[in-house]
Design a protein that fits this description.
This protein is of the alpha/beta class and 377 residues long. It folds into two domains: 198 residues, Glycogen Phosphorylase B (Rossmann fold), CATH 3.40.50; 158 residues, Rossmann fold (3-Layer(aba) Sandwich), CATH 3.40.50. The chain has 14 helices and 14 strands.
Length: 377
């Protein structure tokens, strides 16, 4: 049995956490996992450390050349661990958020083409829990309808995504399921001192290129950090999205009189462990916010799509979501709230109750996938 995992890469740690959770839950002696290598995103150093076999597949100027992989002798393919498209049995798409007008038509168009090919080959295709929509033009709606028709199951991560899909085509294969990285366990790195690193700040470049906030984003977080410092808490940056987020953190640091440390950790287990051992988290990367909520940490977030709103709503902690135009008075109130000892205990208990629901939904999800793929547990 060969399972292809689609939509993950090395720079976005949320995507890597989804990948590792899938491997953790579906690992079996009878299963081989494969992934499509991508230049500067999913190279040998990334997929090899996770025990993934490279699939012979690449696209250039809109033309797929991967099908020529079948002409490579099997003995040679086995020597280098290469997998062809024909050998894959199941495709799990863990893109997180790709099929939406916010990312343009192209990702949806490519997936429509791929899902049609896979369906014609008799493969099972499952879109793992992720955000979908909005779909703002007829072309992307057409492509999304093709995807729905060609896949085995499609899981929407929130109600808005579910409604967006059902509005294109009502289908029982469209289901609701929350984010599944609740099953991903972190490890505290040796260097991390909870007294030295207290309040985790996670910036996100998407807040600038997917919204109209421009420089207001840096100014907002610089203001928040200054207020945290005045409260005698120790904030630090945790980079969750690669080089672009580190540059953003440096820009925010340049607005501070007292600069804060930047942790650029590559190990996703350590990233989760850092979040689990922080006092609180304030940020904009979806999976950093999810990790903090799963860990029962007081969490304040800003977001650029509907997936953020639903994340906080599902955890019964809607007061944790902030807009960049809130007043200084409101910022003060939110910071006082999450740092109050009694309130933080109440927040922790509330979040832990919701974590149980998340965990049960995720376990059910992987049970469904094993059943569909006739996989051993």
């Amino acid at each position: 049995m060969i399972i292809e995992i689609k939509g993950t890469g090395s720079h976005n740690k949320g995507a890597e956490m989804m990948l590792l959770t899938i491997l953790q839950e579906l690992k079996s002696d009878s299963v081989k996992f494969t992934i499509v290598p991508k230049y500067n995103s999913c190279e040998y150093s990334f997929y090899s450390k996770h025990g993934l076999n490279p699939k012979v597949w690449f696209r250039y100027k809109g033309i797929e050349f991967g099908r020529f992989g079948q002409f490579i002798p099997k003995q040679l393919r086995n020597l280098y661990g290469m997998v062809t498209d024909e050998e894959v049995n199941i495709i799990l798409d863990a893109s997180g958020f790709a099929y939406s007008s916010q990312w343009g038509n192209n990702p949806t168009k490519i997936m429509a083409e791929e899902s049609k090919r896979w369906n014609n080959m008799g493969k099972k295709v499952i879109l793992m829990p992720q955000a979908f929509g909005p779909f703002d033009n007829d072309m992307i709606k057409k492509h999304m309808k093709e995807i729905i028709n060609n896949v085995t199951l499609i899981y929407a991560r929130d109600q808005d995504s579910y409604n967006a899909l059902q509005s294109i085509q009502s289908d029982t294969k469209i289901r609701l399921c929350s984010d599944f990285t609740v099953l991903f366990q972190g490890t505290k790195p040796i260097y991390f001192d909870s007294a030295k690193y207290q309040v985790c700040i996670v910036p996100n470049q998407r807040m600038k290129d997917k919204t109209n906030c421009t420089n207001n984003y840096e100014e907002f977080f610089a203001l928040v950090i200054k207020k945290i410092q005045r409260m005698r808490k120790v904030p630090f940056f945790l980079i969750h999205g690669g080089v672009e987020d580190k540059i953003l953190a440096e820009n925010i640091n340049n607005l501070l009189e007292l600069k804060i440390e930047i942790i650029s950790e590559e190990n996703p287990y350590f990233i989760k462990g850092i979040i689990e051992n922080s006092t609180a988290l304030i940020g904009s990367r979806f999976h950093s916010l999810a990790s903090a909520l799963y860990s029962g940490k007081p969490t304040l977030g800003t977001g650029w799509s509907h997936k953020y709103k639903h994340l906080f709503k599902e955890f019964n902690f809607e007061e944790g979501l902030m807009s960049l135009d809130i007043s200084e008075h409101e910022i003060d109130k939110k910071l006082e709230y999450i740092f109050d000892i009694e309130q933080s205990k109440e927040i922790h208990n509330r979040l832990m109750i919701e974590k149980i629901n998340y965990k049960n939904k995720s376990l059910k999800l992987f049970d469904e996938i094993r059943k569909i793929g006739n996989l051993e547990q």
